Amino acid sequence: KAGVTQTPRYLIKTRGQQVTLSCSPISGHRSVSWYQQTPGQGLQFLFEYFSETQRNKGNFPGRFSGRQFSNSRSEMNVSTLELGDSALYLCASSPDPNTEAFFGQGTRLTVV
Amino acid sequence: AQKITQTQPGMFVQEKEAVTLDCTYDTSDPSYGLFWYKQPSSGEMIFLIYQGSYDQQNATEGRYSLNFQKARKSANLVISASQLGDSAMYFCAMRERLQGAQKLVFGQGTRLTINP
Fold first, then answer.
1. pLDDT, mean of residues A28-57
2. CA A47 to CA A64: how far, in whole Å?
């Protein structure tokens, strides 16, 4: 059974640009959540989707957005990139919100 | 708000010894879940073990066990017979329920180094 797949693994972007990250959950998992990991702030919750609906969003500016498709694949978008957006972005999937969450390998974004 | 505390920024252990990583939590929700993840230098978060707040027995998964002391609000991870490959960051996390949504709150992590 394939795990959670995140693409791309690495990205380098320039300030002001926008970026889209992709997450394919484990087959059959309908819940997808996103986290940002930085050395200073640790792991912080971005948002969670279940059956194409965003059910919760963390304390991030509106530049951070996401969506989930009917096949449960999810994308997150960051517009007008800032240097502080440089981080490891992790996606997690679970069959439903009350079970274990399994993470992908992450996308490491560097903003220059 | 829920909170997770990991008081050990780093630990050094000899290979084959057992190691305990500490985690305390704070919540007013009677129903919660506790997780441990391992993060090697590659960045992937590897699920290790899960304990539900209503589970009567401590969770075990191979060499990993979770010492769950509900009254003390602690959920320590015990790794038996440590191996060199266990060197990594370890994160304790708690699932927060928000209108059915899944959200994990993480501790700051413990960097475990296994010495040969």
1. 93
2. 9
Interface residue B45 vs chain A (CB under 8 A): yes
Nearest CA in chain B to A103: B45
Q: Rounded to whole angstroms, how far apart are CA atoms B105 and A85?
A: 20
Residues in chain B with CB shorter than 8 Å from the CB of A48 are 101-103
Token reading at A82? 């800032």
Contact assessment for residue A72 and residue A32, using Cβ atoms and an 8 Å cutoff? yes
Contact assignment for B50 to A100 by CB distance below 8 Å: yes
| pLDDT tens digits along B57-81 | 999 999 999 999 999 999 999 999 9
